[in-house]
């Protein structure tokens, strides 16, 4: 990539691109939990009459449990927050929305977006951090504005 092709993006566009990327991740992140089908090769013991009466109740509870797990796994974090009605609780009760901490007295640490080491450089296009030329190349090939443009 030549110097002419590289362009700096202003802060509002960066924030917009980050928001788009986070929304894509939120939409793509949750998965349905696959049903486990365990096939056993052992011979089971013959059932008693009392055990046969319990099987319908067992199947029903198992079915409702599976439906409950599927319904939980399909909801996004925002949907779970809306469903819990946290916003309606009084402000003196600590919740996810009202919890806070004092700002740190130390400056924020800057980590490489590729390898996780301490970084000294930032991408001019997207603002993500990298620590070396090797990480810069990886960033430009795979991460930089890849999913937001």
Automatic annotation (TrEMBL):
Signal peptide: none annotated. GO terms for biological process: chromatin remodeling. Residues 58-69 have a biased composition (Basic residues). One of its GO terms (cellular component) is nucleus. Residues 112-144 form the HIT-type domain. It comes from the Eukaryota. Keywords: Metal-binding, Zinc, Zinc-finger. Residues 49-69 are annotated as: Disordered. Pfam families: zf-HIT. InterPro entries: Vps71/ZNHIT1, Znf_HIT. One of its GO terms (molecular function) is zinc ion binding. PROSITE patterns: ZF_HIT. This is 13531_t:CDS:1.
